[in-house]
Amino acid sequence: MLSLPNLLTLSRILAVPILLFLLWPGAREDMRHQPLPLDYAFAFALYCLMGITDYFDGYVARARGTVSRLGIFLDPIADKIMIAAVILLLVFTRDVDGWHVIAALIILLREIIVSGLREFLATLQVSMPVTRLAKWKTACQLVAFGALILAGALPMWPWVKTVGLASLWGAAVLTLITGWDYLRVGLKHMD
Questions:
Q1: What's in the keyword line of the UniProt record (predicted)?
Q2: What's the fold here for domain 4-187?
Q3: Which of 170, 176, 168 is nearest to 145 (CA)?
């Protein structure tokens, strides 16, 4: 249970409240309405660290032959918690606003639907492997969220937010495509 890959996954889950604290408006005693650039900078560093642990927990588990049931269970949960928390925070802080909220909702809803579909198919002992396009979707999503957090730290560079929002829409399009692919596979097993 306390293998390095599991500890990395758990650290990702435990980092979410810290990320919340850094980006939550009014979390400090002065009750300011928007996080400061330094808060965003620390949040960006933490977000990058969380992304690195996401890569290395699986890599280390496979390399050491220590893939565990707990790790298989916790890793996707840690991913969903991180994604959902970041989406909600970015919308709440209005770093993602207007029509861009639709892209964020598409990503969030797909995560929920695919998780439920995977759980349903697991009861039928049907696995749904991650596709190459889904990996590209995840990469685009990680870049989008990272750029949007970084944009708060670098308000003097508006192009960073533009990159984040463009990547968010790219991730949303890939989300729709991969979500449909997974749903199509799942529908074959629903009678």
A1: Lipid biosynthesis, Lipid metabolism, Membrane, Phospholipid biosynthesis, Phospholipid metabolism, Transferase, Transmembrane, Transmembrane helix
A2: Four Helix Bundle (Hemerythrin (Met), subunit A) (1.20.120)
A3: 168
pLDDT digits (tens, 9 = 90+) for 33-61: 677 888 899 999 999 999 898 888 878 87
For 55, the token pair is: 């890569």
Spell out the SS3 assignment of 103-163: HHHHHHHHHHHHHHHHHHHHHCCCCCCCCHHHHHHHHHHHHHHHHHHHHHHCCCCHHHHHH
Tens-digit pLDDT profile for residues 13-23: 999 999 988 88
Tokens 């198919």 correspond to what residue? 121
Residue 109 and residue 114: Cα distance in Å, rounded? 9
Hey, what amino acid is at 110?
Answer: R
**Residue whose pair of structure tokens reads 């916790």 in the numeric block:** 74
